[in-house]
Design goal:
Elements: E1 3-6, E2 27-30, H1 35-39, H2 60-71, E3 75-79, H3 84-96, E4 100-104, H4 113-120, H5 128-139, E5 143-144, E6 147-148, H6 181-193, H7 210-223, H8 225-228, H9 248-252, H10 258-270, H11 276-300, H12 319-322, H13 328-340, H14 345-359, H15 363-373, H16 379-390, H17 407-413, H18 434-445, H19 447-450, H20 457-464, H21 468-483
Parallel strand pairs: 1-2, 1-3, 3-4
Antiparallel strand pairs: 5-6
The structure holds iron/sulfur cluster.
Amino acid sequence: MRNLVLLFGDQLDHHSPVFENFDSRLDEIWMAEADEEFTRMWVHYHQLEPGRPRDKGKSLEEILTRDLHELEPEKLTCVQPGEFRLLDMVNKLAKKNNLDLEIKEDNHFFYSINQFKEFANGKKNLLLETFYRQLRKEFGILMDGKQPMGKKWNFDKQNRDSFGREDPGKIKSPRSFTTDKITSGAIDLVNQLYAAHPGNLDHFDLPVNRDEALALSRDFINHRLEHFGQYQDAMWTGKPFLYHSRLSAALNVKLISPKELVSKVIESSFKGEIPFNSIEAFVRQVLGWREFTRGFYWTREPGYVDSNFFNALEPLPSFYWDANTKMQCVKDSILNVINHGYSHHIQRLMVLGLFCLLLGVDPKKFHEWHLAMYNDAIDWVSLPNVLGMSQYADGGLMTSKPYTASGNYINKMSNYCKHCEYRYRESSGNKACPFSTLYYEFLYRNQDKLDDINRMNFQMKNLNRKNRREMENILERGRFLRENINNI
Ligand code: SF4
């Protein structure tokens, strides 16, 4: 064999550069469903079963090592993996086996890793806004000559509405997909091999091939994009998707490319029916945030995963695995994850992430939970979003302040507090909202670090308005919550 072409699970791109010069008479493709990839982030004891399949319990590295000995290729080729761990593994194996290794640039993204490194060069802190504007100009996206279309770069103020007291009303259900034989076979296999894992597949409804991914993108553009911007931060009990696209998993395994998706969204704007703030909000997520996250990952790894600015060492509460909590906001958000492998960005950042930040959960453990639970979580996307944005574990390399809030924010953006036995306005006493208690406790506990962050001044002033008695009551309630964390 001349060349063994390695294809990883998140590289299902029809136009992958790995197929350039591929000759089926001389070359072969290697793919593996490695047991370790499904179990490494959720470590429990599994009893050895009789009749285990050949690769049961094996890692990608073990399977590839065995296959290299059997196949004896002259060369290995792959596209840049989405994870430092895999890149490291491929490099080491090639070296150990004296094989040439060609790693091709991943053309799925707008920017190459080197282009991002050039952007980052010499900058202490990297700002999304600077990066996003650079890409808009460079690719001529939503530009009117040298000016941004709509005369503004940012429509955030129009994009933070909640549904208020109203029910969100009838939102057309997202496009559904019939489960074919291959998919139902895969579901049966997962149910059989990983029956004890958290999450369930009863609601599985993801696009599993390129046609379905394209159909889901059309469905989003036709039925949800119009209100996406306005309600992108809103939450509602029992409504996991609202106006969100659900395309992140398809994008991350490369069934659809961000370039074609952005083009389709921009094309839809020509009809003039979709408000510009929605178009810009979506382009900002894909062209801005997604590219920024990926570039950031490759400029910081290895080593970034161990960041822990607040020295947070608490274990992850048990309700993150089973939704067994009285906090309505947390319960609903985790049920979405268990049932769909998904929750939208505000549930991730301002409910589940916020609770871990305030409680002081070890950020690496929270990151591992993401990798285990979300169907769109790949290291390059999860690590910066969780450690940098949600947990501020890098001390401000990715965002200029920690995303902190009390129960007030959750009440403003959802209907959760209406049905909760805790009271979002109260931060002490036995009905106090855990978010509101832990919010002040967090500010108090980390005062020395937070006082140095300019954008935290307003919140620190609020903390300082609490008199000694109020603070003692908050801290007492905080101690109670910590002692009973798995039963709140
Ligand atoms: Fe969440 Fe607090 Fe509101 Fe309950 S009261 S839903 S815990 S924010």
